[in-house]
Protein backbone atom coordinates (compact mmCIF):
# COMPACT_ATOMS: atom_id res chain seq x y z
CA UNK A 1 0.00 0.00 0.00
CA UNK A 2 1.14 3.53 -0.71
CA UNK A 3 2.76 5.10 2.34
CA UNK A 4 0.42 8.07 2.56
CA UNK A 5 1.05 11.10 4.80
CA UNK A 6 -1.90 9.94 6.92
CA UNK A 7 -0.27 6.59 7.61
CA UNK A 8 3.25 8.00 8.06
CA UNK A 9 1.96 10.49 10.65
CA UNK A 10 0.01 7.75 12.38
CA UNK A 11 3.05 5.49 12.74
CA UNK A 12 5.62 8.14 13.63
CA UNK A 13 3.46 10.03 16.10
CA UNK A 14 2.32 6.83 17.72
CA UNK A 15 5.82 5.45 18.07
CA UNK A 16 7.18 8.65 19.60
CA UNK A 17 4.29 9.10 22.03
CA UNK A 18 4.27 5.48 23.18
CA UNK A 19 8.02 5.46 23.68
CA UNK A 20 7.92 8.74 25.60
CA UNK A 21 5.13 7.75 27.98
CA UNK A 22 6.38 4.19 28.43
CA UNK A 23 9.83 5.46 29.34
CA UNK A 24 8.34 7.70 32.04
CA UNK A 25 9.38 10.95 30.39
CA UNK A 26 6.45 12.89 31.84
CA UNK A 27 6.88 16.62 32.05
CA UNK A 28 8.41 17.77 35.32
CA UNK A 29 7.86 14.60 37.35
CA UNK A 30 9.36 11.30 38.32
CA UNK A 31 7.08 8.37 37.64
CA UNK A 32 6.05 5.94 40.32
CA UNK A 33 6.81 2.23 40.27
CA UNK A 34 5.40 0.38 37.29
CA UNK A 35 2.07 -1.37 37.77
CA UNK A 36 0.07 -3.59 35.46
CA UNK A 37 -2.65 -1.85 33.49
CA UNK A 38 -6.24 -2.94 34.12
CA UNK A 39 -7.39 -5.94 32.13
CA UNK A 40 -9.58 -5.43 29.08
CA UNK A 41 -13.09 -4.85 30.36
CA UNK A 42 -15.77 -2.30 31.20
CA UNK A 43 -14.99 0.40 33.79
CA UNK A 44 -16.01 3.66 35.36
CA UNK A 45 -13.11 6.15 35.40
CA UNK A 46 -12.96 8.26 38.53
CA UNK A 47 -10.68 11.29 38.87
CA UNK A 48 -8.89 11.59 42.23
CA UNK A 49 -9.33 15.36 42.62
CA UNK A 50 -13.12 15.37 42.82
CA UNK A 51 -14.17 11.75 43.04
CA UNK A 52 -16.38 12.34 40.01
CA UNK A 53 -16.62 10.04 36.98
CA UNK A 54 -15.76 10.49 33.33
CA UNK A 55 -19.10 11.26 31.68
CA UNK A 56 -20.47 11.99 28.18
CA UNK A 57 -22.37 15.28 28.24
CA UNK A 58 -26.13 14.63 28.26
CA UNK A 59 -25.47 10.94 27.57
CA UNK A 60 -25.18 11.86 23.88
CA UNK A 61 -24.61 9.20 21.24
CA UNK A 62 -23.40 11.73 18.66
CA UNK A 63 -19.96 12.22 17.17
CA UNK A 64 -18.19 15.27 18.70
CA UNK A 65 -20.16 15.05 21.96
CA UNK A 66 -17.82 16.31 24.69
CA UNK A 67 -16.60 14.73 27.90
CA UNK A 68 -17.07 16.12 31.41
CA UNK A 69 -16.85 14.96 35.00
CA UNK A 70 -20.04 14.19 36.90
CA UNK A 71 -21.15 12.49 40.07
CA UNK A 72 -20.80 8.73 39.60
CA UNK A 73 -24.18 7.16 38.82
CA UNK A 74 -23.29 3.91 37.09
CA UNK A 75 -25.14 5.02 33.94
CA UNK A 76 -23.91 3.49 30.70
CA UNK A 77 -22.67 6.89 29.49
CA UNK A 78 -20.23 6.71 32.41
CA UNK A 79 -19.04 3.24 31.44
CA UNK A 80 -16.08 2.75 29.12
CA UNK A 81 -14.69 -0.41 27.65
CA UNK A 82 -10.89 -0.60 27.81
CA UNK A 83 -9.85 -2.19 24.51
CA UNK A 84 -6.23 -3.19 23.80
CA UNK A 85 -4.97 -2.02 20.41
CA UNK A 86 -1.26 -2.88 20.16
CA UNK A 87 2.02 -2.30 22.00
CA UNK A 88 0.46 -1.28 25.32
CA UNK A 89 -2.04 1.16 23.83
CA UNK A 90 -5.81 1.18 24.32
CA UNK A 91 -9.07 2.66 23.14
CA UNK A 92 -11.78 3.77 25.56
CA UNK A 93 -15.21 3.01 24.09
CA UNK A 94 -18.35 4.40 25.69
CA UNK A 95 -20.92 1.68 26.33
CA UNK A 96 -23.92 3.93 25.69
CA UNK A 97 -22.81 5.51 22.40
CA UNK A 98 -20.36 2.89 21.09
CA UNK A 99 -17.95 5.79 20.35
CA UNK A 100 -14.40 6.29 21.56
CA UNK A 101 -12.46 8.98 23.43
CA UNK A 102 -10.94 11.17 20.75
CA UNK A 103 -8.63 14.19 20.53
CA UNK A 104 -10.14 16.43 17.81
CA UNK A 105 -7.94 16.14 14.70
CA UNK A 106 -5.09 14.91 16.91
CA UNK A 107 -4.30 18.49 17.96
CA UNK A 108 -1.49 19.09 20.45
CA UNK A 109 -3.05 22.28 21.82
CA UNK A 110 -3.14 22.19 25.61
CA UNK A 111 -6.66 22.77 26.95
CA UNK A 112 -8.45 21.17 24.00
CA UNK A 113 -11.64 19.48 25.15
CA UNK A 114 -11.87 15.72 24.69
CA UNK A 115 -14.75 14.38 22.60
CA UNK A 116 -16.19 11.05 21.51
CA UNK A 117 -16.06 9.89 17.89
CA UNK A 118 -16.66 6.77 15.84
CA UNK A 119 -14.00 4.26 16.89
CA UNK A 120 -10.98 3.94 14.58
CA UNK A 121 -8.45 1.65 16.25
CA UNK A 122 -5.62 2.59 13.88
CA UNK A 123 -5.92 6.33 14.59
CA UNK A 124 -3.45 7.41 17.25
CA UNK A 125 -5.65 10.32 18.35
CA UNK A 126 -7.95 7.63 19.75
CA UNK A 127 -5.19 5.56 21.33
CA UNK A 128 -4.18 5.94 24.98
CA UNK A 129 -1.47 4.66 27.28
CA UNK A 130 -1.87 4.05 31.01
CA UNK A 131 1.00 5.03 33.31
CA UNK A 132 0.77 4.07 36.98
CA UNK A 133 0.47 7.05 39.33
CA UNK A 134 -0.46 6.99 43.04
CA UNK A 135 -2.94 4.94 45.07
CA UNK A 136 -3.82 2.63 42.21
CA UNK A 137 -4.54 5.44 39.75
CA UNK A 138 -3.24 6.00 36.23
CA UNK A 139 -2.28 8.87 33.98
CA UNK A 140 -4.16 8.44 30.69
CA UNK A 141 -2.00 9.83 27.86
CA UNK A 142 -2.90 10.24 24.21
CA UNK A 143 -0.58 8.41 21.83
CA UNK A 144 -0.85 11.07 19.13
CA UNK A 145 0.42 14.00 21.23
CA UNK A 146 1.53 12.64 24.63
CA UNK A 147 -0.90 14.87 26.58
CA UNK A 148 -3.01 13.53 29.44
CA UNK A 149 -6.69 13.50 30.37
CA UNK A 150 -7.30 16.27 32.90
CA UNK A 151 -10.08 18.27 34.54
CA UNK A 152 -10.12 21.90 33.44
CA UNK A 153 -8.94 24.22 36.22
CA UNK A 154 -8.63 21.21 38.57
CA UNK A 155 -12.32 21.85 39.29
CA UNK A 156 -14.31 19.67 41.68
CA UNK A 157 -17.66 20.71 40.22
CA UNK A 158 -19.95 18.43 38.24
CA UNK A 159 -19.94 19.51 34.60
CA UNK A 160 -16.28 20.59 34.53
CA UNK A 161 -14.73 19.88 31.14
CA UNK A 162 -12.35 17.00 30.49
CA UNK A 163 -9.40 18.42 28.54
CA UNK A 164 -5.83 17.48 27.60
CA UNK A 165 -2.81 18.90 29.43
CA UNK A 166 0.81 18.07 30.03
CA UNK A 167 1.24 14.85 32.02
CA UNK A 168 1.97 15.49 35.70
CA UNK A 169 1.03 13.40 38.73
CA UNK A 170 -1.61 15.88 39.92
CA UNK A 171 -4.93 14.67 41.29
CA UNK A 172 -6.91 16.20 38.43
CA UNK A 173 -5.03 13.83 36.09
CA UNK A 174 -5.13 10.67 38.20
CA UNK A 175 -7.81 8.21 37.14
CA UNK A 176 -8.89 4.98 38.80
CA UNK A 177 -10.59 2.17 36.89
CA UNK A 178 -13.51 0.57 38.77
CA UNK A 179 -15.17 -2.45 37.18
CA UNK A 180 -18.67 -1.68 35.90
CA UNK A 181 -21.58 -3.85 34.89
CA UNK A 182 -23.80 -3.58 31.86
CA UNK A 183 -21.37 -4.30 29.06
CA UNK A 184 -19.38 -7.05 27.46
CA UNK A 185 -16.02 -7.36 29.19
CA UNK A 186 -14.04 -7.89 26.03
CA UNK A 187 -14.33 -8.17 22.27
CA UNK A 188 -13.91 -11.33 20.28
CA UNK A 189 -10.28 -11.34 19.15
CA UNK A 190 -8.90 -13.25 16.17
CA UNK A 191 -5.20 -14.09 15.92
CA UNK A 192 -3.72 -16.62 13.52
CA UNK A 193 -0.98 -17.53 16.00
CA UNK A 194 -3.48 -18.67 18.63
CA UNK A 195 -2.99 -15.73 20.99
CA UNK A 196 -6.62 -14.59 20.54
CA UNK A 197 -9.94 -16.24 21.29
CA UNK A 198 -10.18 -17.52 17.72
CA UNK A 199 -7.74 -18.46 14.98
CA UNK A 200 -10.03 -17.66 12.04
CA UNK A 201 -12.41 -14.81 11.31
CA UNK A 202 -15.23 -17.22 10.49
CA UNK A 203 -14.94 -18.85 13.93
CA UNK A 204 -15.42 -15.45 15.55
CA UNK A 205 -18.40 -14.65 13.32
CA UNK A 206 -19.98 -18.02 14.11
CA UNK A 207 -19.70 -17.24 17.83
CA UNK A 208 -21.69 -13.98 17.49
CA UNK A 209 -25.19 -14.44 18.93
CA UNK A 210 -27.96 -14.64 16.36
CA UNK A 211 -30.12 -11.57 15.80
CA UNK A 212 -28.14 -9.32 18.14
CA UNK A 213 -29.46 -5.80 18.73
CA UNK A 214 -26.15 -4.17 19.72
CA UNK A 215 -22.70 -3.96 18.16
CA UNK A 216 -20.75 -7.23 18.04
CA UNK A 217 -17.10 -6.23 17.68
CA UNK A 218 -14.50 -8.62 16.26
CA UNK A 219 -10.90 -7.42 16.31
CA UNK A 220 -8.35 -9.10 14.07
CA UNK A 221 -4.63 -9.16 14.86
CA UNK A 222 -2.11 -8.48 12.08
CA UNK A 223 -1.65 -11.45 9.77
CA UNK A 224 -3.02 -13.18 6.69
CA UNK A 225 -6.26 -15.12 7.07
CA UNK A 226 -7.03 -17.38 4.12
CA UNK A 227 -10.56 -18.64 3.69
CA UNK A 228 -14.09 -17.49 3.00
CA UNK A 229 -15.99 -15.42 5.58
CA UNK A 230 -19.80 -15.37 5.54
CA UNK A 231 -21.87 -12.99 7.67
CA UNK A 232 -25.44 -14.26 7.31
CA UNK A 233 -28.69 -12.34 7.72
CA UNK A 234 -29.04 -13.53 11.31
CA UNK A 235 -25.72 -11.84 12.23
CA UNK A 236 -26.50 -8.09 12.23
CA UNK A 237 -24.35 -5.41 13.86
CA UNK A 238 -21.03 -7.14 13.25
CA UNK A 239 -18.00 -4.81 13.43
CA UNK A 240 -14.83 -6.24 11.85
CA UNK A 241 -11.76 -4.24 12.88
CA UNK A 242 -8.11 -4.77 11.93
CA UNK A 243 -5.60 -4.03 14.69
CA UNK A 244 -2.61 -3.18 12.48
CA UNK A 245 -1.06 0.20 11.75
CA UNK A 246 -2.40 0.10 8.19
CA UNK A 247 -5.10 -1.82 6.29
CA UNK A 248 -2.51 -4.06 4.64
CA UNK A 249 -1.44 -5.45 8.04
CA UNK A 250 -4.61 -7.55 8.28
CA UNK A 251 -5.47 -9.48 5.09
CA UNK A 252 -8.54 -11.66 4.57
CA UNK A 253 -7.99 -13.51 1.29
CA UNK A 254 -9.31 -16.36 -0.80
CA UNK A 255 -8.85 -17.35 -4.43
CA UNK A 256 -12.16 -18.84 -5.59
CA UNK A 257 -13.38 -17.99 -9.08
CA UNK A 258 -16.89 -18.08 -10.52
CA UNK A 259 -15.95 -21.25 -12.37
CA UNK A 260 -15.19 -22.94 -9.06
CA UNK A 261 -17.70 -21.47 -6.62
CA UNK A 262 -20.37 -19.91 -8.80
CA UNK A 263 -20.73 -16.28 -9.73
CA UNK A 264 -21.22 -13.44 -7.27
CA UNK A 265 -21.81 -14.83 -3.75
CA UNK A 266 -20.15 -18.14 -4.52
CA UNK A 267 -16.76 -16.71 -5.40
CA UNK A 268 -16.66 -13.88 -2.85
CA UNK A 269 -13.97 -13.90 -0.17
CA UNK A 270 -16.26 -12.04 2.26
CA UNK A 271 -20.05 -12.23 2.05
CA UNK A 272 -22.11 -9.69 4.03
CA UNK A 273 -25.86 -10.24 4.38
CA UNK A 274 -26.23 -9.09 8.01
CA UNK A 275 -27.50 -5.51 8.34
CA UNK A 276 -25.55 -2.73 10.07
CA UNK A 277 -22.20 -4.32 9.24
CA UNK A 278 -19.01 -2.29 9.49
CA UNK A 279 -15.39 -2.98 8.58
CA UNK A 280 -12.34 -0.88 9.31
CA UNK A 281 -8.58 -0.97 8.74
CA UNK A 282 -8.13 -4.22 6.84
CA UNK A 283 -7.73 -5.76 3.39
CA UNK A 284 -10.20 -8.04 1.64
CA UNK A 285 -8.74 -9.77 -1.41
CA UNK A 286 -9.50 -12.39 -4.02
CA UNK A 287 -6.16 -13.44 -5.48
CA UNK A 288 -7.56 -15.61 -8.27
CA UNK A 289 -5.73 -14.74 -11.51
CA UNK A 290 -8.29 -14.01 -14.22
CA UNK A 291 -5.72 -14.95 -16.88
CA UNK A 292 -5.88 -18.61 -15.82
CA UNK A 293 -7.89 -20.51 -18.45
CA UNK A 294 -11.14 -22.30 -17.75
CA UNK A 295 -11.98 -20.93 -14.32
CA UNK A 296 -14.18 -17.99 -15.23
CA UNK A 297 -13.07 -14.41 -14.86
CA UNK A 298 -15.35 -13.33 -12.01
CA UNK A 299 -13.69 -13.56 -8.61
CA UNK A 300 -15.17 -11.27 -5.95
CA UNK A 301 -13.37 -9.90 -2.95
CA UNK A 302 -16.49 -8.52 -1.24
CA UNK A 303 -20.20 -9.24 -1.72
CA UNK A 304 -22.60 -6.78 -0.05
CA UNK A 305 -26.31 -7.51 0.19
CA UNK A 306 -27.33 -5.81 3.44
CA UNK A 307 -28.54 -2.42 4.58
CA UNK A 308 -26.63 0.34 6.42
CA UNK A 309 -23.08 -0.81 5.79
CA UNK A 310 -20.04 1.24 6.81
CA UNK A 311 -16.64 0.54 5.23
CA UNK A 312 -13.69 2.69 6.27
CA UNK A 313 -9.97 2.56 5.49
CA UNK A 314 -10.11 -0.72 3.59
CA UNK A 315 -8.24 -2.22 0.64
CA UNK A 316 -10.47 -4.22 -1.71
CA UNK A 317 -8.37 -6.15 -4.20
CA UNK A 318 -9.35 -8.31 -7.18
CA UNK A 319 -9.46 -8.57 -10.95
CA UNK A 320 -12.91 -8.70 -12.56
CA UNK A 321 -15.88 -8.01 -10.24
CA UNK A 322 -13.96 -7.04 -7.11
CA UNK A 323 -16.93 -5.50 -5.27
CA UNK A 324 -20.60 -6.38 -5.73
CA UNK A 325 -23.11 -3.95 -4.21
CA UNK A 326 -26.24 -6.02 -4.62
CA UNK A 327 -29.78 -4.67 -4.76
CA UNK A 328 -30.41 -4.84 -0.98
CA UNK A 329 -27.18 -3.02 -0.12
CA UNK A 330 -26.84 0.56 1.07
CA UNK A 331 -23.23 1.41 1.89
CA UNK A 332 -21.06 4.37 2.87
CA UNK A 333 -17.44 3.74 1.87
CA UNK A 334 -14.75 6.14 3.12
CA UNK A 335 -10.97 6.42 2.70
CA UNK A 336 -10.89 3.09 0.88
CA UNK A 337 -8.81 1.74 -2.01
CA UNK A 338 -10.55 -0.45 -4.61
CA UNK A 339 -8.76 -2.03 -7.56
CA UNK A 340 -9.67 -4.35 -10.39
CA UNK A 341 -9.74 -4.82 -14.15
CA UNK A 342 -13.28 -4.72 -15.56
CA UNK A 343 -16.70 -3.99 -14.01
CA UNK A 344 -15.00 -4.22 -10.66
CA UNK A 345 -17.60 -2.12 -8.81
CA UNK A 346 -21.02 -3.36 -9.84
CA UNK A 347 -24.59 -4.16 -8.82
CA UNK A 348 -28.01 -2.65 -8.21
CA UNK A 349 -27.51 -1.33 -4.69
CA UNK A 350 -26.71 2.15 -3.36
CA UNK A 351 -23.18 3.16 -2.44
CA UNK A 352 -21.31 6.37 -1.76
CA UNK A 353 -17.52 6.29 -2.16
CA UNK A 354 -16.09 9.24 -0.24
CA UNK A 355 -12.40 10.27 -0.23
CA UNK A 356 -11.57 6.93 -1.81
CA UNK A 357 -9.17 5.78 -4.54
CA UNK A 358 -10.44 3.65 -7.41
CA UNK A 359 -7.68 2.04 -9.47
CA UNK A 360 -7.88 0.36 -12.89
CA UNK A 361 -4.89 -1.99 -12.81
CA UNK A 362 -5.11 -3.51 -16.31
CA UNK A 363 -2.78 -1.92 -18.84
CA UNK A 364 -5.43 -2.22 -21.55
CA UNK A 365 -7.94 -0.47 -19.31
CA UNK A 366 -11.63 -1.21 -18.96
CA UNK A 367 -14.83 0.07 -17.36
CA UNK A 368 -14.79 0.66 -13.60
CA UNK A 369 -18.51 0.27 -12.92
CA UNK A 370 -21.29 -1.98 -14.15
CA UNK A 371 -24.30 -0.62 -12.29
CA UNK A 372 -27.65 -2.38 -12.51
CA UNK A 373 -29.72 0.19 -10.62
CA UNK A 374 -33.45 -0.58 -10.86
CA UNK A 375 -35.14 2.00 -13.06
CA UNK A 376 -37.53 3.02 -10.28
CA UNK A 377 -34.67 3.79 -7.88
CA UNK A 378 -33.27 7.32 -8.12
CA UNK A 379 -29.80 6.62 -6.74
CA UNK A 380 -27.08 4.10 -7.51
CA UNK A 381 -23.35 4.79 -7.16
CA UNK A 382 -21.77 8.12 -6.16
CA UNK A 383 -18.02 8.75 -6.25
CA UNK A 384 -17.56 11.89 -4.17
CA UNK A 385 -14.30 13.74 -3.55
CA UNK A 386 -12.50 10.61 -4.65
CA UNK A 387 -9.62 9.83 -7.02
CA UNK A 388 -9.63 7.69 -10.15
CA UNK A 389 -6.25 6.24 -11.18
CA UNK A 390 -5.01 3.61 -13.61
CA UNK A 391 -2.06 1.70 -14.98
CA UNK A 392 -2.08 3.51 -18.33
CA UNK A 393 -3.36 6.79 -19.75
CA UNK A 394 -6.47 7.18 -21.86
CA UNK A 395 -7.75 3.62 -21.32
CA UNK A 396 -10.12 3.64 -18.35
CA UNK A 397 -13.87 4.09 -18.71
CA UNK A 398 -16.06 5.31 -15.89
CA UNK A 399 -18.67 2.65 -16.47
CA UNK A 400 -21.19 0.74 -18.53
CA UNK A 401 -24.84 -0.19 -17.80
CA UNK A 402 -25.38 -3.77 -16.67
CA UNK A 403 -29.08 -2.82 -16.57
CA UNK A 404 -30.50 0.00 -18.65
CA UNK A 405 -31.54 1.99 -15.57
CA UNK A 406 -27.95 2.16 -14.26
CA UNK A 407 -27.22 5.32 -12.24
CA UNK A 408 -23.66 6.48 -11.59
CA UNK A 409 -22.30 9.93 -10.70
CA UNK A 410 -18.68 11.08 -10.36
CA UNK A 411 -18.81 14.28 -8.35
CA UNK A 412 -16.03 16.71 -7.34
CA UNK A 413 -13.48 13.97 -7.87
CA UNK A 414 -9.95 13.91 -9.26
CA UNK A 415 -9.91 12.01 -12.54
CA UNK A 416 -6.36 11.21 -13.58
CA UNK A 417 -5.09 10.85 -17.14
CA UNK A 418 -6.10 7.18 -17.10
CA UNK A 419 -9.66 8.20 -18.05
CA UNK A 420 -10.59 7.93 -21.72
CA UNK A 421 -11.65 11.55 -21.98
CA UNK A 422 -13.33 11.43 -25.38
CA UNK A 423 -15.60 8.51 -24.45
CA UNK A 424 -15.64 7.67 -20.72
CA UNK A 425 -18.92 5.69 -20.84
CA UNK A 426 -19.67 2.62 -22.96
CA UNK A 427 -22.46 0.14 -23.77
CA UNK A 428 -23.03 -3.29 -22.25
CA UNK A 429 -24.90 -5.97 -24.20
CA UNK A 430 -28.27 -4.45 -25.13
CA UNK A 431 -28.00 -1.53 -22.71
CA UNK A 432 -26.71 1.76 -24.09
CA UNK A 433 -24.82 4.31 -22.05
CA UNK A 434 -26.87 7.19 -23.51
CA UNK A 435 -30.07 5.76 -22.01
CA UNK A 436 -28.46 5.05 -18.67
CA UNK A 437 -28.23 7.70 -15.95
CA UNK A 438 -24.52 8.45 -16.16
CA UNK A 439 -23.44 11.87 -14.84
CA UNK A 440 -20.49 14.03 -13.79
CA UNK A 441 -20.24 17.20 -11.76
CA UNK A 442 -17.29 19.52 -11.17
CA UNK A 443 -14.57 16.92 -11.55
CA UNK A 444 -10.94 17.96 -11.89
CA UNK A 445 -7.69 16.45 -13.13
CA UNK A 446 -6.26 15.43 -16.49
CA UNK A 447 -9.09 12.97 -17.06
CA UNK A 448 -11.88 15.50 -16.46
CA UNK A 449 -13.63 17.39 -19.23
CA UNK A 450 -16.92 18.29 -20.85
CA UNK A 451 -18.10 17.10 -24.25
CA UNK A 452 -21.19 15.56 -25.83
CA UNK A 453 -20.24 12.14 -24.44
CA UNK A 454 -19.98 13.41 -20.87
CA UNK A 455 -23.37 14.44 -19.38
CA UNK A 456 -23.00 16.97 -16.57
CA UNK A 457 -25.26 17.96 -13.69
CA UNK A 458 -26.25 21.60 -13.39
CA UNK A 459 -25.67 23.38 -10.09
CA UNK A 460 -29.36 23.24 -9.29
CA UNK A 461 -29.56 19.52 -10.08
CA UNK A 462 -26.49 18.82 -7.94
CA UNK A 463 -28.42 19.70 -4.79
CA UNK A 464 -30.40 16.48 -5.29
CA UNK A 465 -27.29 14.31 -5.69
CA UNK A 466 -25.40 14.67 -2.43
CA UNK A 467 -24.05 11.79 -0.31
CA UNK A 468 -26.81 12.45 2.21
CA UNK A 469 -29.50 12.14 -0.47
CA UNK A 470 -28.07 8.87 -1.75
CA UNK A 471 -27.97 7.27 1.69
CA UNK A 472 -31.09 8.68 3.38
CA UNK A 473 -33.49 6.00 2.21
CA UNK A 474 -36.84 5.86 4.00
CA UNK A 475 -35.26 5.90 7.47
CA UNK A 476 -33.17 9.08 7.17
CA UNK A 477 -29.85 7.27 7.65
CA UNK A 478 -27.00 9.80 7.62
CA UNK A 479 -23.53 8.44 8.37
CA UNK A 480 -21.88 11.22 6.34
CA UNK A 481 -19.25 13.09 8.32
CA UNK A 482 -18.29 10.12 10.42
CA UNK A 483 -14.65 9.23 9.75
Features:
483 residues, mainly beta, 35 strands, elongated, 16-stranded parallel beta sheet
Kindly describe this structure.
There is one protein chain. With 483 residues, the chain is mainly beta. 8% of the residues lie in helices and 33% in strands. The chain is built from 5 helices and 35 strands. The strands form 7 sheets. It has a 16-stranded parallel sheet that branches. The longest helix has 18 residues.
Number of helices: 5
Mean pLDDT comes to 88
Number of strands: 35
Helix content: under 10%
Ends apart, CA distance between termini: 20 Å
How much strand content do the residues show? 25-35%
Main sheet makeup: 16 strands, parallel
Pick out the low-confidence regions.
1-34, 181-186
Rg over alpha carbons: 24 Å
Broad shape = elongated
What structural category arises from helix and sheet content? mainly beta
Topology:
Layout: H1 5-22, E1 41-47, E2 53-56, E3 67-70, E4 80-84, E5 90-94, E6 99-102, E7 115-118, E8 128-132, E9 138-142, E10 148-151, E11 162-165, E12 175-179, E13 188-190, H2 201-207, E14 216-220, E15 223-226, E16 229-231, E17 238-242, E18 250-254, H3 258-261, E19 270-272, E20 278-286, E21 302-304, E22 309-317, E23 323-325, E24 330-334, E25 337-340, E26 345-347, E27 350-354, E28 357-360, E29 366-371, E30 381-384, E31 387-390, E32 396-401, E33 407-411, E34 414-415, E35 437-441, H4 459-462, H5 467-472
Parallel strand pairs: 13-14, 14-17, 15-18, 16-19, 17-20, 18-20, 19-21, 20-22, 21-23, 22-24, 22-25, 23-26, 24-27, 25-28, 26-29, 27-30, 28-31, 29-32, 30-33, 31-34, 33-35
Antiparallel strand pairs: 1-4, 1-12, 2-3, 4-5, 6-7, 8-9, 10-11
